[in-house]
């Protein structure tokens, strides 16, 4: 019987795809690829091409070469404040919100009481969009009817948290960090659950303190999570738009590159070519971090 079955299997050979199988595979692969090309790569390539032109969306497209980029870097006052604010977002989320999320993950990983409740409460802001977070920030930091000024109870001289360009960026960063911290906490909590307990036990036997065990044993094992969190933090900072636009349309101290793209392309000026140049700058910076992440992942896969 085994010889007969082996002969039958050899006679049959590999299964051939029928025309129906090929049609199903074509639909399942073709539709996502078509959507990706249409909604992502198509507009991306179009923006790169339009960044070298002068076009208002109605008239003829005029080729201007790199003039848009020259104007952007040398003769467009909102650009550098927007770059500074974007870098400030990266620094604040990376140096404040991310370490705080890691701290919360470490505390919850120790199995404190009501940890499930804390996880749900801290993660809840993540399900909110940044636009909703912006509206909540207005309820808290508003000059006349905000909760913060009501608590401070200084009715004669209320602080204009969102109107003062020296203060509003920090208030918005606090609101954005409130949402970002929960996201980082969940990522690190998942990473901490996968750490081999025997590593901690071996470090304790060698006489390492709890702090030394974390920084010399646990944290190095979280390297893949660190890379993911770093890339997500940078992307979140660079694509920030909703919260500042909900507060004051990204003006008066809250300028961001994403807001400048919108103002030039959709605004009254309809400078589509110029707005596309800003979008390309934002894309280039984002791609730098994304490519770094992909290279790290590919190297890790080869070593594994």
TrEMBL record:
UniProt keyword annotation of Plastid present: no
Gene3D superfamilies registered for this protein in UniProt: MetI-like (1.10.3720.10)
Subcellular location: Cell membrane
Positions of the ABC transmembrane type-1 domain: 83-295
UniProt cross-references to InterPro entries, sorted A to Z: ABC_transporter_permease (IPR051393), MetI-like (IPR000515), MetI-like_sf (IPR035906)
Listed transmembrane segments: 21-42, 87-108, 120-141, 169-190, 272-295
Record keywords: Cell membrane, Membrane, Transmembrane, Transmembrane helix, Transport
Membrane topology, from the record: Multi-pass membrane protein
Record-linked Pfam families: BPD_transp_1
Chief site of localization: membrane
Family affiliation: Belongs to the binding-protein-dependent transport system permease family.
Protein name as it appears in the record: Sugar ABC transporter permease
Organism encoding this protein: Streptomyces mordarskii
Source taxonomy: Bacteria, Bacillati, Actinomycetota, Actinomycetes, Kitasatosporales
